[in-house]
Amino acid sequence: MENLRIDKTPNTPYVHLDAATGKMEIKGRSVPENPLEFYSPLNDWLERFSAQAAERVLSMDVSLEYFNTSSSKCLLDVFKKMATIHRLGAAVEINWWCEEFDDDMIEAGKDYQDLLNVPFNIKIISEDE
Q1: How far apart are CA 125 and CA 98, in angstroms?
Q2: Which domain range does residue 103 map to?
Q3: How many domains are there within the chain?
Q4: pTM for the whole thing?
C-alpha cells in the first residue's frame, strides 16, 4: 500500500499517511475551496487501509491552527473511518494537538471526542514549549 503525502498550502494542511507504520499527520490550516475534494484522498486511503486493519496500529496526530465549518464535517468523516478501522480490530488513537489558550480548538477537540467511539486524546501545547 502506498503512502499519502499532501504538501501544505496557505489554505490546506500538510498531510502524511504512512502505510508501513500506521502513523498519520494533519498539520496547518484547513480552509480549502472544496473540502470534499481535499479530504477524499484521505478517506480513500483509510478505506484501503481498513482492508488490512486487523491487528494493525493506526495513530493520527492532528495539529490545526484553524479550520472552517466545511472542513469540520470532512474531518469528522475521516475520524469516523478511523472508528470503523478500530472496530475491525486495529489499535487506533487520535491525538488532537492545540495551544493551551486556544479555547475554540480545545472545544472542537472535546466535541469530536464526545462523538467518537475511539481513543481520542486532547494534547495541550503549552506556551513554554
Answers
A1: 6
A2: 4-125
A3: 1
A4: 0.93
Domain with 49 in it: what CATH number? 3.30.750
pLDDT in tens, 1-31: 899 999 999 999 999 999 999 999 999 999 9
DSSP the chain: ---EEE---SSS-EEEE-TTT-EEEEEEEE--SSHHHHHHHHHHHHHHHHTT-TT-EEEEEEEEEEE-HHHHHHHHHHHHHHHHHHHTT-EEEEEEEEETT-HHHHHHHHHHHHH-SS-EEEEEE-TT-
Is residue 42 within 8 Å of residue 17, measured between CB atoms?
Answer: yes
Look up residue 77 and give its three cell numbers: 468523516
Residue whose C-alpha cell reads 469530536 in the numeric block: 112
